[in-house]
Specification:
The structure holds two protein chains of two kinds.
Chain A: H1 2-16, H2 18-44, E1 58-65, E2 68-70, E3 75-76, H3 77-86, E4 90-104, E5 109-117, H4 119-124, E6 131-132, E7 147-150, H5 152-159, E8 169-172, E9 175-182, E10 195-198, E11 213-220, H6 226-243, H7 245-248, E12 251-257, H8 258-263, H9 267-299, H10 301-309, H11 314-354, H12 369-396, H13 399-404, H14 413-448, E13 459-465, H15 474-489, E14 496-500, E15 509-515, E16 528-534, H16 538-541, E17 546-549, E18 563-567, H17 568-574, E19 584-587, E20 595-601, H18 611-615, E21 618-622, E22 630-636, H19 642-659, E23 666-670, H20 671-678, H21 680-714, H22 716-724, H23 729-763, H24 772-799, H25 802-807
Parallel strand pairs in A: 5-10, 7-9, 16-21, 18-20
Antiparallel strand pairs in A: 1-2, 1-11, 1-12, 3-11, 4-5, 4-8, 4-11, 6-9, 7-10, 8-9, 13-22, 13-23, 14-22, 15-16, 15-19, 17-20, 18-21, 19-20
Helix pairs in contact in A: 1-11, 2-9, 2-11, 2-12, 9-12, 9-14, 9-21, 11-12, 14-21, 14-23, 14-24, 15-19, 21-24, 23-24
Chain B: E1 3-15, E2 20-32, E3 36-40, H1 47-54, E4 62-67, E5 70-71, H2 77-87, E6 88-91, H3 103-112, H4 119-132, H5 148-160, E7 166-170, H6 178-193, E8 197-201, H7 205-209, E9 213-218, E10 221-227, H8 229-237
Parallel strand pairs in B: 3-8, 3-9, 6-7, 7-8
Antiparallel strand pairs in B: 1-2, 1-4, 4-5, 9-10
Helix pairs in contact in B: 3-4, 3-5, 4-5, 5-6
Classes of the chains: A alpha+beta, B alpha/beta.
Bound molecules: adenosine-5'-triphosphate and magnesium ion.
């Protein structure tokens, strides 16, 4: 009954003060929305569980090379087979391979990524075919009938969903293959596959240096920790490094969850940064609302004191105040669940649009049960912090002293101290948060505007992969290049055309190299470089500038000595004396012969624009000298508007189809689009942090302004006294500004290093970048906020004549 | 004796949305240096308003005010602040000490607004003022740690620390018991004896009698202006 009347009382108080209620609910909703959104986002994506019985114990095994983790098909099959014999930590230790496959039916050819998998692969991912059967270990035996399992999508597009598809044939890389099963649309592991083929990659009979790379995964035995399994794999890899110093130098491996592996190295740091950011925002919101409630409680201090004096138990008074905050937080909590739900839905569509790939199947960006539970817990905790603590503090004073308080004209001393602490914490939190967020946004912005070292606009690209058996012959590959380039060049829409193994912004293979004349010792630590094969006109068409020597020309033929063009950072890093031309190097793992350096060009960036990738040296080789099967055709266009691109894509697809039926063009897009898609993830994260920055700015400003103006209003009488004693207006401003500067300095002294530390933490994963400019702008901005929060209330207080200020209660 | 204050037809009107209150009308008053003036009258008659105008805490609505030979009606805020600081010392009914500052800091406060005082000079003045009110032993205390009487003595010290030309006191004993009230009144007597000019509002007839001259206000006008009986006797004797 009494709880009822308490709630009733609190509700009436809130309704009676609509402004106060609206403000507190707004602040709290902002904090809670960000918090619940972030929680659901992280829970639903980065750390979402795999929806399998043993999902908790499934791990990816990825290679670490030169300290950097490479995901997916990263382990040499020889290494995998050696490891498989010796690992103890796993119930299942297995590999699968990914490769581009040409599929052709009687009327057309398409190109897809195929998964080469084992029986285990389907078992642990709890696959259930829609039609037919899964792949078995027998299918992988040599001499077995070639079979394939189709995805739902492929079944629809190639066979129009034909119910009788089982037993029909399909040419896979020109090999007739029987379809034995169709998977349901929902099946994905570890990503959305198109076609599954038996895993037949073998180490036996293949030179170690020519080995295939496979993706390795495992199911940990129950009770085996990640730490244990990691130690094991690292020590086994170290033994392999000792055994094969040339091939395995700087190579190790790690295990982590499939989810972590799919997100890459920086994930845990990003998660931490996000959690810290929303934590800070929520804390800011709590401090603001708590402070608003508290200052209202102190305003009513006399009333409270009188009631205490009249015998009201302290618990009753605390309960009444607490219900207010419980109501505020509950309303905000409900609103926050609503808003974050809508926001998550929006993010879902945004991400689908922005990403070049299907989001991982375990992503589930909705408000789940656990987000609701989290929301309730967070709401209760905030209600406690914002309600009970101020209530206890407000009623803890000696009520007799409050009643007797003869020295009017100022807040009580402890209330004054509290408001100082509030201002300092707002400065600390907002400073750290703003530095973190802007550091992140800044680095993403830098990355978006990075110089790739080539022209990027109005470049159109497709990939083709020449069928293996037909193009064993290298001359035939060369022939193909010439034909395609000539045919495309003849089209009026095409300004120029070239060929490259990989393009700026996309991954290049980063390989160990040896410089001629350098002794790398018994346990070699080789340097490395990107290796990029290009057609001879590549540099001129892509506007790569020659700094020294020459680029490839007709002299660089297949039977002439191997030549290479290197980037400036290659020259600087490996030939410090500046004498580069004529020097020789080779790719340790793949080549027997030396490449002679004939020219130096400007730096070209391969991979995402992180500091590490920017620093990577590159060596260009001639695809005339070493023709490859998988290449990008690069077309220079006059424009890249949608219709030009659509038109071009038709032309290029048509031309390639005509020249080689079994090498359909895929990955058709502009270079700009492929770069943008690659950066989409970071852009999304940086947009989130922009929201954090804005929210923290609004909360910090309203918080600091609220506290300062409240403090100053309460000091109106003191202002009157000071003026009566001869202070002029500038003296009054000075007094409050000096006070403000004290709090500001303490706040910044704590907040700046905190923010810088956070930025540094992210900088190591290339996720943020500190800049002196930001380290100056952000504190200046906060100082300006502080100054305004002092200036306006003081100005208002000074409008009163001193005698009126003196009478102010 | 030199004329310190000269008010001619001074007027104060408070206008709120609904009403105009003529708080003071046609006030003509001269106060000489060294005078001890008491202002009396019923509640709401305009005593505090008059003191505020004398102390430049408020602006008048008409008439002229000459303080120490200078016209102070049309001067700017900065000049008014400087005059309050140098020429005037205030003692309030509710003491009005600043609770976050110590006794010494409170007393030093008006001196900190003077640009021409060194720190040692200021400390000397503070010490002298506090000794005068017999509070030299409590410099480090905070106001809340003092009794009402002690607080008011500190307030008096603050008012006299800068050697103002005139001390304005609005019911300085209003919040004090009779024993403490007596102490504070004795203090003002002493200051007057040392040559201070004092204008004091008081309800307390015993207090009023200690002044040399008493003016009575009724409904915003001075209705009587006469020497107190003790002064009359003293004059008669002389
Ligand atoms: N700021 C103001 N706005 C409007 N009216 C005012 C204001 N200040 C004073 N008054 C009015 O002016 C008149 C004189 O007030 P004042 O405070 O001078 O009286 P007082 O003589 O000091 O009374 P008391 O003995 O009760 O202190 C009163 O009628 C009061 O209501
Ligand atoms: Mg009065």
């Amino acid at each position: 009954m009494s709880i009822f009347s308490d709630i009733n009382f609190a509700l009436r108080t809130l309704i009676k003060n609509p402004k106060f209620t609206a403000l507190t609910v707004f602040v709290m909703t902002t904090g809670l929305t960000l918090c619940i959104y972030m929680f659901s986002f992280i829970q639903g994506t980065m750390v979402a569980p795999l929806p399998f019985k043993d999902g908790e114990r499934i791990r990816a095994v990825d290679m670490i090379y030169n300290g950097m983790t490479y995901q997916g098909t990263s382990i040499r099959v020889h290494d995998f087979e050696d490891l498989k014999k010796r690992v103890q930590s796993y119930e299942v230790f297995d590999a699968y391979d990914i490769g581009t496959v040409n599929l052709s039916t009687n009327d057309r050819a398409v190109k897809y990524t195929g998964h080469f998998v084992t029986e285990n692969f389907f078992k642990i991912s709890e696959a259930k075919p829609l039609l037919g059967r899964l792949l078995s270990n027998e299918d992988a035996l040599s001499g077995a009938e070639p079979v394939a399992v189709l995805s739902h999508t492929l079944w629809q597009s190639l066979f129009a969903g034909d119910k009788d598809v089982l037993g029909k044939k399909l040419r896979v890389n020109t090999k007739p293959t029987t379809i034995v099963g169709v998977m349901p649309d929902s099946y994905q592991f570890p990503d959305a596959g198109r076609i599954w083929l038996p895993y037949t990659t073998k180490a036996t009979g293949v030179e170690r240096s020519k080995a295939d790379y496979v993706a390795v995964y495992g199911v940990l035995k129950p009770g085996v920790t990640d730490e244990l399994a990691n130690t094991e794999i690292k020590s086994l890899m170290a033994e392999l490094e000792d055994k094969f110093p040339k091939l395995n130098s700087n190579t190790s491996a790690r295990i982590w969850t499939i989810q972590e592996s799919s997100m890459g190295d920086g994930t845990s740091v990003i998660i931490l940064a996000m959690e810290l950011a929303v934590g800070f925002i929520l804390l800011l919101a709590c401090i603001n609302v708590g402070n608003l409630l508290f200052s209202r409680a102190t305003e009513k201090g006399k009333e409270t004191a009188i009631r205490t004096a009249l015998g009201a138990p302290r618990a009753t008074i605390i309960m009444q105040m607490m219900w207010e905050s419980v109501l505020i937080c509950s309303i905000s909590g409900v609103l926050a669940v609503l808003f974050s739900g809508l926001w998550l839905e929006q993010s879902n569509t945004d991400l689908l649009e922005a990403f070049p790939f299907d989001p991982p199947f375990w992503w589930n960006m909705t408000i789940t049960e656990s987000s609701i539970i989290a929301a309730i817990v967070i709401t209760l905790v905030t209600a406690f912090i914002t309600g009970i603590l101020p209530a206890i503090k407000a009623t803890s004073g000696d009520f007799n002293a409050t009643l007797r308080d003869g020295t009017r004209g100022a807040q009580g001393k402890s209330a004054g101290r509290l408001s100082k602490i509030v201002v300092i914490s707002e400065v600390v939190l907002s400073c750290a948060l703003l530095l973190l967020s802007t550091g992140m946004v800044y680095s993403v912005n830098q990355q978006n505007n990075v110089d790739y070292g080539t022209s990027v606009e109005d470049i159109f690209t497709v990939r083709v992969g020449l069928p293996e058996t037909e193009y064993k012959n290298l001359e035939k590959r060369q022939q193909y290049y010439q034909t395609v380039m000539a045919a495309l060049k003849a089209k009026p829409e095409v300004e120029d055309v070239s060929i490259a193994r990989t393009l700026p912004g996309n991954w290049a293979s980063y390989e160990n190299i040896a410089i001629d004349g350098v002794d790398y010792g018994k346990k070699p630590q080789y340097p490395s470089s990107n290796s990029v094969g290009v057609a001879h006109n590549y540099f001129q068409m892509m506007e790569v500038n020659l700094r020294e020597g020459r680029v490839f020309d007709s002299r660089d033929k297949m039977d002439s000595p191997l030549t290479a063009v290197v980037t400036e950072n290659f020259a600087k890093k490996y030939f410090a004396d500046g004498d580069v031309l004529g020097k020789r190097f080779k790719f340790v793992e793949t080549d027997k012969d030396w490449y002679t350096i004939i020219g130096v060009v400007n730096d070209v960036l391969h991979g995402q624009p992180t500091a590490m990738n920017i620093a990577k040296p590159s060596a260009f080789t001639s695809i005339q000298q070493a023709p490859k099967r998988f290449i990008s055709i690069v077309v220079k266009t006059k424009a890249s508007d949608a219709s030009t691109v659509a038109n071009l894509s038709k032309i290029v697809t048509g031309v390639t189809q005509k020249i080689e039926r079994d090498a359909p063009a895929y990955d058709v897009k502009t270079l700009r689009a492929s770069i943008d898609q690659r950066n989409a993830g970071m852009n999304f994260v940086s947009e989130l942090f922009l929201v954090f920055a804005a929210a923290s700015m609004v909360l910090a400003f309203s918080g600091i302004y609220g506290v300062m103006s409240n403090t100053i209003v309460q000091k109106t009488q003191e202002i009157g006294i000071r003026r009566a004693l001869g202070a002029d207006e500038s003296d009054i401003y000075k007094h409050f500004i000096i006070q403000g500067i004290k709090q500001l300095s303490i706040g910044l002294i704590i907040g700046i290093p905190m923010g810088v530390a956070l930025v540094n933490m992210l900088e190591q994963s290339s996720l943020a970048q500190g800049s002196l400019m930001l380290y100056i702008i952000i504190p200046t901005l906060i100082s300006a906020v502080m100054f305004l929060a002092i200036y306006y209330p003081v100005q208002r207080a000074l409008k009163l004549e001193p005698c009126a200020a003196l009478r102010h209660e | 004796m030199k004329t310190l204050i000269k008010l001619t037809n001074l007027k104060k009107v408070f206008s709120t949305d609904e009403v105009e209150t003529h708080a003071l009308s046609d006030i003509n008053l001269e106060v000489k240096q060294g005078e001890y003036l008491s202002i009396a009258g019923p509640s709401g008659c305009g005593k505090s308003t008059l003191l505020s105008l004398l102390g430049l805490l408020d602006t008048c609505s008409g008439g002229s005010y000459n303080l120490n030979g200078h016209d102070v009606v049309d001067i700017n805020g900065k000049q008014r602040a400087a005059i309050r600081n140098k020429e005037i010392g205030f003692v309030f009914q509710s003491f009005n000490l600043i609770s976050e500052l110590t006794v010494a800091e409170n007393v030093a406060l008006p001196l900190t607004y003077r640009k021409d005082l060194s720190k040692t000079e200021r400390n000397d003045l503070v010490k002298a003022a506090l000794e005068k009110v017999d509070m030299g032993h409590r410099t480090k205390h905070y106001p809340s740690q003092l009794s009402g009487g002690q607080q008011q003595r500190v307030a008096v010290a603050r008012a006299i620390a800068g050697n103002p030309s005139i001390i304005l006191a609005d019911e300085p004993t209003g919040n004090l018991d009779s024993k403490n009230a007596e102490l504070v009144m004795a203090l003002l007597d002493k200051l007057h004896a040392e040559g201070a000019t004092i204008c004091m509002v008081t309800h307390d007839p015993r207090g009023a009698k200690r002044a040399e001259r008493i003016i009575e206000i009724f409904d915003g006008r001075i209705v009587s202006d006469s020497p107190t009986t003790e002064t009359k006797i003293a004059e008669a004797v002389a």
